[in-house]
């Protein structure tokens, strides 16, 4: 009886989430136009619900898909709070691809990235399976470490300053699993992937910010201390929850997390008189308890976010009042740094010229972006090009080059102006 009651409740209270697929050429990071994308329930992959085609920016239209009720992701319950869909992609000149288990939450835009390989004689087929979310499935708990690594050991600290890396080398398995593959992942993409795998994107923005800051600080501690390289390994971090965070190859990213990572990506957490980013460990607070260790719990951070706590207030509630948000000294792999002010109509100079030239390069790969006159003067033509760029990449369409827009332009410029030799 309880089973049928539960089934009826799900049928009567179905919510919807938004969903979009982006298809890129793996060889050069450029969009694949006219790719045919079929979407079905993961449990019934041959029963197609939607069939759409990518545009010149490699994106499908945003569609609405059914999800479980919103409240399932707001409290720790036994019911799965997200729907799982399978995506099948075909494009002329490329190997077909399938992604199973792509997650859709209610009231949030889920973006599923897909990169395609050029087809070779004797067609092959790539299938990616996204495993369950960490809050819904039991993964190995984190093995406790000191949050600050010793600095008096030879070779332990090798970097002179905190730098946001261009890439993270992710070992997709436990530390000693020599058969696990290493992936070169852009830093922000890595953080977005982990956050989408470890918290629910339906949570309050400040809860998401607190968790993103903890993930970034932990990651930058691994980078700054070269933790694994100093132990003889050739990677930055693992995908094992026992050692690091859950990173999932090929998974979808949620727009609320995407936006907040772009807002915060230069930040990390620090304590007074400690140079290195803090190794901010945490647990879910339901399946694994860790509050007594002074760690943040994810469900606890959700409760505080519901009560109106800011991100730093949430973090200090768990890690102590001497925790601060700091900013990295540099961003590696970026052509030139953020000017420190928004670029808008009437602005002029080298920073405007840089943006204009970068937009024109991007337009070669994304023809929807209008080409502009590179004269160093921010006029209506440049503003319109920026506005179109923002629309393509999910930013607020103000036509103003603010902090998130600046670094998104840098990211896409770097991606399309050279072959990603690390992939």
TrEMBL record:
SUPFAM superfamilies: PGBD-like. It comes from the Bacteria. Transmembrane segments: none annotated. InterPro entries: Peptidoglycan-bd-like, PGBD-like_sf, PGBDSf. Residues 348-408 form the Peptidoglycan binding-like domain. This is Peptidoglycan-binding protein. It comes from Blautia luti DSM 14534 = JCM 17040.
């Amino acid at each position: 009886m309880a089973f049928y009651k539960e089934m009826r409740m799900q049928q009567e209270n179905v919510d919807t989430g938004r969903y979009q697929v982006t298809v890129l050429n793996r060889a050069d990071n450029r969009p694949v136009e006219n790719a045919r994308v079929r979407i079905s329930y993961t449990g019934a992959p041959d029963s197609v619900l939607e069939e759409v085609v990518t545009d010149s920016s490699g994106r499908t239209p945003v569609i609405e898909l059914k999800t479980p009720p919103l409240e399932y992701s707001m409290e720790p319950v036994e019911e799965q709070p997200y729907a799982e869909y399978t995506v099948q992609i075909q494009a002329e000149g490329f190997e077909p691809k399938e992604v199973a288990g792509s997650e859709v939450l209610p009231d949030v835009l889920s973006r599923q990235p897909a990169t395609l390989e050029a087809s070779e004689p004797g067609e092959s087929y790539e299938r990616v399976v996204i495993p369950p979310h960490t809050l819904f499935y039991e993964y190995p708990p984190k093995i406790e470490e000191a949050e600050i690594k010793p600095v008096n050991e030879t070779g332990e600290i090798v970097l002179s300053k905190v730098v946001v890396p261009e890439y993270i080398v992710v070992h997709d398995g436990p530390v000693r699993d020599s058969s696990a593959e290493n992936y070169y992942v852009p830093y922000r993409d890595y953080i977005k992937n982990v956050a989408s795998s470890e918290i629910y994107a339906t949570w309050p923005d400040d809860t998401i910010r607190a968790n993103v800051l903890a993930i970034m600080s932990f990651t930058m501690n691994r980078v700054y201390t070269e933790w694994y390289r100093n132990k003889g390994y050739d990677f930055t971090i693992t995908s094992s929850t026992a050692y690091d965070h859950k990173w999932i190859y090929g998974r979808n990213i949620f727009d609320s997390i995407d936006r907040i990572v772009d807002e915060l990506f230069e930040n990390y957490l620090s304590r007074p008189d400690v140079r290195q980013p803090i190794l901010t460990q945490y647990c879910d607070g339901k399946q694994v308890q860790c509050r007594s260790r002074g760690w943040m719990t994810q469900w606890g951070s959700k409760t505080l976010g519901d009560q109106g706590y800011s991100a730093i207030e949430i973090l200090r509630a768990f890690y102590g009042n001497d925790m601060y948000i700091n900013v990295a000294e540099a961003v590696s792999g970026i052509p030139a740094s953020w000017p420190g002010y928004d670029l808008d109509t009437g602005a002029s100079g080298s920073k405007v010229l840089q943006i204009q030239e970068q937009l024109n390069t991007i337009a070669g790969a994304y023809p929807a972006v209008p080409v502009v006159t590179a004269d160093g003067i921010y006029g209506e033509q440049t503003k319109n090009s920026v506005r179109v760029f923002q629309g393509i990449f999910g930013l607020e369409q103000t036509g103003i080059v603010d902090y998130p827009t600046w670094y998104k332009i840098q990211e896409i410029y770097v991606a399309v102006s050279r072959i990603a030799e690390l992939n």
